[in-house]
Specification:
With 138 residues, the protein is of the alpha+beta class. 46% of the residues lie in helices and 31% in strands. The protein has 5 helices and 4 strands. It has a 4-stranded antiparallel β-sheet, sandwiched between helices. The chain is globular and about 40 Å long. Antiterminator that binds to cis-acting regulatory sequences on the mRNA in the presence of histidine, thereby suppressing transcription termination and activating the hut operon for histidine utilization.
Length: 138
């Protein structure tokens, strides 16, 4: 069984990435805060190749803005690395296509997880996918 901390962070990040409205996001953040889990979510979209950097930047900015991480090199690098890991899991499905969706970021104790929900568009034939990355932070 995985470490309980990493599992809690991963589950929270996935739940945040799958919220459909800002209100649902806010409610979930309050619920997670009761379990000492800090969380954030942010939308993104665009051509996959050009969107990768924007997705990483948005994840780091949202995590700092919502107090999920501190403004330290280690924390920012952890979120950026976990986000890149999550994106890489969906690369073959999304390469050359338009993507859109939501990034969920969560921290429990010294565990940070980033989940990326992708809607991949090709004409009217949409595909979906989820990537998940994790990092330990000090």
């Amino acid at each position: 069984m995985p470490n309980v901390g990493s599992k809690k962070a991963a589950k929270a990040a996935l739940m945040m990435a799958l919220t459909e409205t800002r209100e649902e996001e806010k409610e979930l953040k309050i619920k997670l805060a009761e379990e000492n889990i800090r969380a954030a979510a942010v939308d993104y979209g665009g051509d996959f190749i050009s969107a990768v950097n924007k997705i990483v930047e948005r994840a780091v900015v949202a995590a700092k803005r919502e107090g999920v991480i501190k403004e330290t090199h280690a924390d920012e690098g952890a979120v950026a690395g976990a986000t890149r890991e999550a994106i890489s899991q969906l690369m073959t499905k999304a390469l050359g296509l338009n993507v859109g969706g939501k990034i969920g970021i969560a921290r429990f104790q010294d565990h940070v997880a980033v989940a990326v929900f992708f809607g991949v568009g090709l004409l009217h034939l949409d595909e979906v996918g989820v990537g998940l990355g994790h990092r330990a932070v000090p």
